[in-house]
Amino acid sequence: DNDRANTVKYERLVMEHWSAEKNFYQQGEMANEAARVCIEAGDLDTAQKLYREGTELGLQEPGIAPDRAALWKFRLEHAEARLAARRGQKDAAMKHVAAAKALLDASPGMAKQQAIFYPYLTGYVALYTGDAAGALAELAKANQSDPFIHCLIGMAHEKLGQKQQALEHYRKAAQATAHNPPAAFAVPFARKKLAGQ
Q1: DSSP for the chain?
Q2: Which residues of the chain have pLDDT under 70?
């Protein structure tokens, strides 16, 4: 529902639970999850605060492994790039994209699991900075089982005036059954797009 206020409220309650357990990783995860809802709901300032808070919490994990520390830094650069793109700040977005890539290159262990999120990042930034064709090229390399990726591909096709291709991807997104933030955004978004065709 893009109900960012209640999302943040309830994620904070979960964060309090993990705080009592001194589980910094889970606190950071919940902050990032709330931030993800906020960014797609258009509340960029709250999203940015939560992403930064999530990273700060995650990095407090006692004895944190280098790959885990790199993961938190990568996630923050990923988020900062998307936020800058949403604000129309292409140069800033590209600096964060470069920083995210440098973190992947410097941490092969982290990159094994996170490299799939890089074309999502570059596609997202291209889409929101006016390069729909570039977005399609990048998003084609992203996780094709992610309904959020299908929404982004649909949006890029729409910007290029390719209605049928857009609808095809919205149909795929609308069929998602996962219970996670990407599906929580993608399913209602795609259904609205399909209802308005």
Answers
A1: ---HHHHHHHHHHHHHHHHHTT-HHHHHHHHHHHHHHHHHTT-HHHHHHHHHHHHHHHTTSTT--HHHHHHHHHHHHHHHHHHHHHTT-HHHHHHHHHHHHHHHHH-HHHHHHHTTHHHHHHHHHHHHTT-HHHHHHHHTTS-TT-HHHHHHHHHHHHHTT-HHHHHHHHHHHHT----SHHHHHHHHHHHHHHHT-
A2: none
